[in-house]
Amino acid sequence: MPFVYYAVNIWRTIHPNTNVIPSLVPGMRGPFWYCVLTFMLFLLVLLALRARVERLRTDLDELYRAEEA
């Protein structure tokens, strides 16, 4: 993603202007940042769930090893 952003800035004759946030209408800044925050919270929840699944998987593996011994 950063590569694409910087490539667009380098070849300005091919691509339109990439400064989206400063040129947003003031009424759209609130919804934009709300969506950014909501998306970040969603990613954190997914990360926490993934970590929990891996912890449970590790516990299950330990239980299998304990039963085999």
Quick gist of this model?
With 69 residues, the protein is mainly alpha-helical. Helices cover 75% and strands 0% of the residues.
Describe this structure in words.
It is a single chain. It is elongated, with a radius of gyration of 22 Å. Helices cover 75% and strands 0% of the residues. It has a domain at 25-69. The model has no long low-confidence stretch (mean pLDDT 84). The protein contains two helices and no strands. It has helices at residues 2-10, 26-68. It is an all-alpha fold.
Number of strands: 0
Number of helices: 2
Name the structural class: mainly alpha
- Could you give the distance between the termini? 49 Å
Attribute tags:
69 residues; mainly alpha; 2 helices; elongated
